[in-house]
Sequence to fold (161 residues):
Amino acid sequence: MKHSVDYRGARPAARRQRGFTLIELIIATTIMAILVGAALPLAKNEVKRENERQLRQDLWMIRDAIDRYKDAADKGAFTIKLGSEGYPPDLDTLVTGVDIAGKKLKFIRRIPIDPMTGKAEWGMRSMQDEKDSSSWGGQSVFDVYTKSDQTALDGTKYKDW
Fold:
């Protein structure tokens, strides 16, 4: 039987261990924590930016429906309530529609959910209300706004959009 002899020393050559040392694991974990910490604010801003885009789209959709209701009222397509100036009495009227010669004319499919509050509740103003009023006089719906008090990425208040 032959013995393997290592001419470099008395012991046989040690096998090289595979894997990570504790220092390597700590460094890798630290780098990952820094990268995740840097990515979180970017992700939060992206979510906020998407909610802002959705808010602008929802406001445009509701305001467009109000304008179409007003145009139809101004053309005499249906009778309007005295003092309403031809604007809808509430947002539900835009969804349920009005009768015109036996047919329903609807202006919007549904009231969208406000992305800032998570509810299908919107602040409303009538023609008689002040432009920055936060209470609705109830005469008609001239304009809508979000009930959120948060500030947008551009520094403006959402309720002023």
In short: Strands lie at 98-100, 103-105, 123-125, 143-145. The chain has one domain: 22-160. The chain has a mean pLDDT of 87. The CA atoms of residues 124 and 137 lie 9 Å apart.
